[in-house]
Design goal:
Blueprint lengths: L1 E5 L3 H12 L3 E5 L5 H6 L4 E3 L6 H4 L11 E3 L6 H4 L6 E3 L3 E4 L2 E4 L3 E4 L3 H10 L4 E3 L2 H17 L2 H6 L3 H7 L1 H19 L7 H9 L17 H10 L5 H9 L5
Parallel strand pairs: 1-2, 1-3, 3-4, 4-5, 8-9
Antiparallel strand pairs: 5-8, 6-7
The protein binds NADP nicotinamide-adenine-dinucleotide phosphate (NAP).
């Protein structure tokens, strides 16, 4: 198999490394290079740019067969990818920052390339699983609970994750529950009450994490508020935290 990886940042280089170790030929694609072989090829295209970059990148991917595309962004990118139902998606459950690399859970994938990618990435040292679309939707909602806590609240309170979970435990839990309640409704599932305990276990290795400026809010806490409004629900805690950084939808 030959795979192209667009965006050789933290996630892109880690996925590329694992694919390479499993025997897949990897072609990096940067802003300026690799697009010609990508267009001529027929293997998977792992889209590893940040979610903020997706809107501007999607038009550039329009000539590529949708079955080849695999999106691995954090955040509520479902509405953005709704027009690409034939593509695959992954949820990254490792943390990579410079030398630091920690697998938090197996990373789930769904879509036509999920099985083969999960097998290759697992062989290459990044545990991954393939899920049916409905199970992936639940995993997506659960991951948003994580994204909404490990980000904006840390920036607002000026604390690392350990300090925040100790000092603002009720707020953290409320942010999480509000996010998963709204987004579960958006995809027509019930949130699992066990998700909070799983979050705490998965977040334990990341207690040192600090967030000076929360990024991609439109795709994280902002998406919770937007979906809540669309569904006639409320999301007051996420709304309050967004207001604290003057973020408006
Ligand atoms: N890092 C983690 O531990 C982690 C964990 C879970 C999920 N995620 C999610 O994974 C996604 C990627 O995060 P990341 O940490 O890997 O971000 P990152 O380190 O900033 O990497 C993004 C990469 O995309 C490249 N890029 C941007 N625009 C491009 C374009 N038009 N064409 C080609 N390449 C382009 C950037 O290149 P330039 O240098 O040229 O800008 C950069 O190399 C995000 O949604 C993030 O939330 C990350």
């Amino acid at each position: 198999m030959r795979a192209h990886v667009i965006g050789m940042g933290e996630v892109g280089r880690r996925l590329a490394g694992a694919l390479d170790r499993s025997g897949v030929e990897v072609k990096p694609v940067t802003r300026g290079e690799g697009w010609d072989t990508l267009a001529a090829g027929d293997g998977p295209v792992l889209v590893c740019v940040r979610e903020e970059t997706l809107p501007e990148l999607l038009p550039r991917l329009s000539g590529i067969h949708r079955h080849r595309l695999v999106f691995v962004q954090n955040g509520w990118v479902r509405p953005l990818l709704a027009a690409l139902p034939e593509s695959s998606r992954g949820l990254i459950w490792f943390t990579s920052k410079g030398e630091f690399f920690q697998v938090l859970r197996p990373s789930p994938f769904t879509g036509p390339l999920a099985q083969s990618l999960a097998r290759c990435l697992s062989q290459g040292g990044i545990p991954c699983v393939a899920l049916a679309a409905s199970d992936f939707a639940a995993a997506d909602v659960e991951k948003m609970g994580f994204n909404c806590v490990v980000g904006l609240p840390l920036a607002v309170r000026g604390l690392n994750l350990r300090e925040y979970l100790e000092s603002w435990r009720e707020e953290a839990r409320a942010v999480f529950q509000e996010a998963v309640t709204v987004l579960a409704r958006a995809v027509g599932i019930e949130p699992d009450p066990a998700w909070w305990a799983s979050f705490e276990a998965s977040a334990a290795p990341l207690h040192w994490v600090r967030v000076s400026t929360a990024k991609a809010l439109e795709w994280r806490n902002g998406a919770v508020v937007r979906e809540a409004r669309r569904l006639g629900m409320s999301a007051p805690i996420n709304e309050k935290l967004l207001a604290a950084v003057d973020f408006t939808l």
